[in-house]
Amino acid sequence: MQITIADLPLAPQGSAPMKNKPAQYKAVNLAVGSRDSVLPLYLYVLVKPRIQVDCIATAEVRKHFFQTPTCVSGHLGGETKLIIDRTLSRVEQVFQNIDQRSMVGLEIGALDNPIARPAAGQVFYADYCSTADLRRNHVNTPTVDINSIVDVDFVTNGGYLRDVVPDSLKFDYVIASHVIEHVPDIISWLQDIGHVLKPGGILSLIVPNKEHTFDSRRSISEQKDFFAANILRQTKPSPIQVFDYYRWHERNGSLVHTLEYSIEMARKSISDYVDAHCWVFTTETFYDEIQTLIDENLIPYNLGVVTKTPPGEIDMFAQLVRT
C-alpha cells in the first residue's frame, strides 16, 4: 500500500480540516514537531479499497518532512505511517529540522566520529565512561582513532543522563547513531532522554536495519522483550540477548560463531557486561514498536518520519519530537 505525497495546499496549519475537500478523502491528523511546538497538520487520504491509498499533504507537511514528492508506506485505521524514501544525505537527514547554529545539542556515543561538531554550534557529548577510559578501551580497536575521541562532558557509567546533566541544562536536540540497539532497557533510555530534552526538542536516531546487517538471521524484537527489560530495570544485555547476538551473527552467508562460543558469552553476561545488539528492527517494526510505546504514554514523544534504507546502506533514520 502506498501513500503519495503531493504539494497541494489544503488546510492551513493548526486549522480544522478543510470543508470543501472531496468526499472520498479522509482527514488524518498529523502532529509535526518543530523546535518550538508540535503543530497539528492534516493529510487528506483517498481510500481506494484493496488498491492503494493516495494522500495529499499541506505545504507545511512538505516543508517539515519532504524535499521532493515521494512515497511512504502506510495504512489507515486510526493512523497513517510516514515511512519515506531517503532523498537527503546522511548528515542532512540527521539534522533535518535542527539548526545547529541557534540550538544546543547533545550527542550520545560519538566516540571518534561525532556527527555534531562544536564548529557548527554548541554541542555536548555523553558516553558511558570518560574520554581517558574510552581511549584505553579502544587502544587495540583498529577502526577507532583514539586521538580523535571527543571530550566527554557527561559520563553516565551506565546510569541515567538526568543524574549527570544539570537541571538547568535542557537540549534542543539529541543525536544517537548506532546507540539504541545496544541499550539494555529501551523504554527507560527513551524516557531518560526525554528528561533532558526541551519540549519540542528532537531526538534524531540512526538505527541499523536488520535486513541489511549481520543481524539478518535474528528474530525481530517485540513488545514483550521491551517490557521484560523494563520490568527488570535491565542495566546490561541479558544472557538471551547476548546468546541471540552471537549465535546468529552472520558474515558472507555463514555464521561467525559456534554454538559453544555463543553459550559461553551468554554465561559470561550473567556476571559481566557483554556488549551486544539488544534490539533488532526492520523499518516497519521500528515504526510500529516506537509508536506503540507512544500510544501507551510510556515515552514522551511524537514520532516523525522513519526512512527506508537506501540500496548499499544499512541504516534507517528516525526523529522523535519531545511533547
Q: Can you describe what's shown?
A:
It is a single chain. The protein is an alpha/beta fold. The protein folds into 2 domains: 2-84, no CATH class; 90-211 and 279-322, 3-Layer(aba) Sandwich (Rossmann fold), CATH 3.40.50.150. It contains 8 helices and 15 strands. It has a 10-stranded mixed beta sheet with strand order 1-5-6-14-15-11-10-7-8-9. Strands 2-3-4 form a 3-stranded antiparallel beta sheet. A two-stranded antiparallel sheet has the order 12-13. A hairpin with a 3-residue loop joins strand 3 (38-48) and strand 4. The longest helix is centred in the last third of the chain and has 13 residues, at 283-295. It is globular.
